Amino acid sequence: MEDKIATIKTWLGTGSINVFGLPMSGKDTQGLALAKAIGAKLLSSGIIIRAKEAETRKYYTNHGALTPTDVFYDWVLPYFSRQDIASVPLVLSSVGRWSGEEDKVMESAAAAGHPIKAVLLLNISEADVENRWVAAKTLGDRGNRRDDKDLETFHTRLEEFRTKTLPVMQHYKSLGLLINVNGDQPRDAVYAEIIDKLYDFAIRSGQTAS
Prior knowledge:
The protein is an alpha/beta fold. It has helices spanning about 1-10, 25-40, 45-55, 70-75, 100-110, 125-140, 150-175, 185-205, and strands at about 15-20, 40-45, 90-95, 115-125, 180.
């Protein structure tokens, strides 16, 4: 696996890998593991937005809806240009979830020296992520997230993904950037598949960063 990770790092350079999936699909968990392996920084739009909501006391995601596009642009996109991450690759956790945002995300990432080179989609059924949500609420390990407060809100998040984010995946697919991953596996197996598929993608692309 170390040889594959080395190949991925060389191919990626200071580029970005964007990770998507339904709520509770493991985006941040897998994104953090991948970032650690390749020496990247994790940039999670969800974490940034929740922090900004707490700071500004302007809450857009209370009921499970996505942040308005103009707010997303103002709050999240400036992170691409931060000097403390200028020389390292990025793993993005669902940056640009609303159809139409992907072009601006790609433009901002490229302008900051972090071009998006691959997009991972963790595939898992809505029934399975709902079971994960119920289990997490029972264990109380999700904190007091406003967008996780009840099942109705969670269902809204699923609908937002279905109607607004899936078209984003189709756009990335049309660009040849989308990599599908089976998210309905143990964490280690999901991670291993991510490394295998990114390695294969890097080899097929025939590109290495200078």
